Amino acid sequence: MDQILYEAQNGIATITLNRPEAANAQTMALLDDLDAAYTRAARDAHVRVVVLRANGRHFSAGHDLKDRWPGPGEITLEWIYDTETRHYLEYSLKWRNIPKPTIAAVQGKCIAAGLMLCWPCDLIVAAENAEFSDPVVHMGIGGVEYHGHTWELGPRKAKEILFTGRPLTAREAEQVGMVNKVVPLDELDSGTYELADRIAAMPPFGLRQAKRAVNQTLDVQGFHTALQAVFDIHQTGHGNALSVDGFPILTRLDEMKQHLKQG
Q1: Which residue ranges does UniProt annotate as crossing the membrane (predicted)?
Q2: Predicted TM-score of the model (pTM)
Q3: What is the chain's Cα-based Rg?
Q4: Of 119, 121, 102, the residue nearest 111 (C-alpha)
Q5: pLDDT mean across residues, the chain
Q6: What is the torsion angle, in degrees rounded to the nearest 10, for the CA atoms of residue 233, residue 239, residue 244 and residue 245?
Q7: Could you write out the DSSP letters of every residue in the chain?
Q8: CB-CB contact of 142 with 238 (8 Å)
Q9: Is the distance from CB of 161 to CB of 144 less than 8 angstroms?
Q10: Which residues have a Cβ under 8 Å from the Cβ of 146 and sit 6 or more positions away?
Q11: Domains of the chain by range and CATH?
C-alpha cells in the first residue's frame, strides 16, 4: 500500500498520508514520498493550492520509531544528527517555502512529529476532535526537531504544552492563532476544500508573493535561525540519552502508544 497518495484536479493538489493502520506514523520512506509529492505539486503549473490530509482516525502519531533505527548500542549521535537534519528539519523548512499556498486538514491526534507536517503549511483546518501535542519532554528531549512552538503558540503557551505534555485542543489552537478554522469532523474535507477553492481563484503570482512576504518577515525576525539553533539543542537531548543508557527512546514506545490511546 502506498504511504502517500497524490491527486490533482481543479487547481488543487491533494496529498494524503496513507498509513491509517499505524495512525499515520512517519517512516523515512513516507517522508521521502511526501517530499516527492510536494515537489510534484510545486512544479505543476496547473496546481495553485496544495492540501495535506490524512486517512484514518488520526492525522499523525509522529515518528515511527521502529523504522530504520539502529538498536541500542549501535546508534551514534552523528547518525541521529545527519538523519534528522535531512528528514526532519530540512524537509519541513523546504515544505514551508514551496511557492504555493498549502493547507493542512487535521483530525484526531497530531503528536510530536505530526506537528512537523502541519506547521509548515500556511493554513490549518482542524476537526473538532483534533488534538496537538509534543510529549517528548517525557523522554528527556526539549521538543520535536522542527521547533516552531514559540512562533505557533507564543512563549507561555509553548512552555505550558512542553512542560506538561498535555494536548492542545482544536479550539485552544484556534484561540492562539495556530489553527485558522475548526469544523465538525464530518465537515473537515468540505471545509478544507471550500477554503482551497477560494484561494485557487486568486492570481497565482499574487499568492506566491504574499506567501513569500509573510515568510520572509518571520525569517527577518529570526525564525529560520532560531529553528536551526534549537535543532542543535535538540541533539544534546539525544547525546544525553546515549551517554546515560544507550538511547532509551527506543524502549519507550509503549508509553507513546498509551499517550495515543488517551483522551
Answers
A1: none
A2: 0.91
A3: 18
A4: 119
A5: 90
A6: 130
A7: --SEEEEEETTEEEEEE--GGGTT-B-HHHHHHHHHHHHHHHH-TT--EEEEEESSS-SB--B-TTSSPPPTTT--HHHHHHHHIIIIIIHHHHHHT-SS-EEEEE-SEEEGGGHHHHTTSSEEEEETT-EEE-GGGGGT-SS-SS--HHHHH-HHHHHHHHHH-PPEEHHHHHHTTS-SEEE-GGGHHHHHHHHHHHHHTS-HHHHHHHHHHHHHHHHHTTHHHHHHHHHHHHHHHHHHHHHHHS-GGGG-HHHHHHHHH--
A8: no
A9: no
A10: 88, 89, 92, 93, 115, 116, 119, 120, 227, 231
A11: 4-261 (3.90.226.10)
Residues ≥6 apart with Cβ < 8 Å to 30:
3, 4, 17, 19, 64
- For residue 2, report the phi and psi dihedrals to the nearest 5 degrees: -65, 135
The cell for 219 is 525569517
Separation between Cα atoms, residue 213 and residue 133, nearest integer Å:
29
Place of cell 478554522: 181
User: pLDDT of 161-202, one tens digit each?
Assistant: 999 999 999 999 999 999 999 999 999 999 999 999 999 999
Diameter of the chain measured on Cα atoms: 55
Q: Which three cell numbers mark 22?
A: 499505524
